[in-house]
Amino acid sequence: MSCCYLSSTGDLKDVPASAGPPHHPTTTFAECPELDYLVVPGPDPTGQLSEECIKFVQERFPTLKGLLTICTGSVAMAQTGILDGVQAASNKWALGMLAKAGLLNRKVKWVGDKRFVKDGKVWTGAGVTAGIDLAAEFARVHFSKEVVEFVQDISEYVPNPAQPDPFARLLEGVKLD
Predict the structure, then answer these.
(1) This prediction's pTM
(2) Which of 107, 92, 97, 37 is nearest to 65 (CA)?
(3) Of 3, 4, 32, 71, which one is the catalytic site residue?
(4) Does 32 qualify as catalytic in the annotation?
(5) For residues 91 and 41, is the Cβ–Cβ distance under 8 A?
């Protein structure tokens, strides 16, 4: 298995993260090899994707085995149109803020009462820790029981189910559709 960190520029300069250390890209959108999975972490929910990024996602999505988003990664991917009609989770605080500001992409079927959602080959996690639960569920579906139990034991983590989501309360009174 190999991983790529993507950038839109050929100089492969470090990309600042919205939190934490910068990321060092290993390839560009134009030079990226074939991918099985695309994992999208959560950027600033009001940020705009570059045209190059949108085009890359739109072209690559049909051949992916899966798309996994964490936190506001689903809000970013909604800009590409690939989530139109798809049930998706995202950070509830961000969903509420975007909905109240009239900036929420209403073509997506936003789910406000689950920690993670799987719709076809799209896996979306609500918030940062929900992303851990999403990864645990993805592993449960794709890997052997022994591997999953080993990883849970060495990380000392017990996954939460998709529901109930204790953070669903953050969207009480907020219209997502």
Answers:
(1) 0.92
(2) 37
(3) 71
(4) no
(5) no
**Cβ–Cβ under 8 Å, residues 24 and 5:** yes
Q: Which residues, other chains included, contact 1 with Cβ-Cβ below 8 Å and sequence gap of 6+? A: none
Burial of residue 38, with CB atoms counted within 10 A of its CB: 0-12 exposed, 13-18 middle, 19 or more buried: buried
Are the C-beta atoms of residues 37 and 66 closer than 8 Å to each other?
yes
> SS3 helix, strand, coil % of the chain, rounded to 5?
35, 15, 50
Report the alpha-carbon distance of residue 15 to residue 40 in Å, rounded: 14
Grouping H, G, I as helix, E, B as strand and the rest as coil, residue 139 is helix
Rounded Cα distance between 146 and 81, Å, is 38
* pLDDT value, residue 7: 82
Residues of the chain under the 70 pLDDT cut: 1, 10
Evaluate whether 39 touches 70 at the Cβ level (below 8 Å). yes
In the structure encoding, which two tokens stand for residue 119, read together? 């719709």
Task: Give the model's pLDDT for residue 115.
Answer: 98
Provide the pLDDT for residue 85: 98
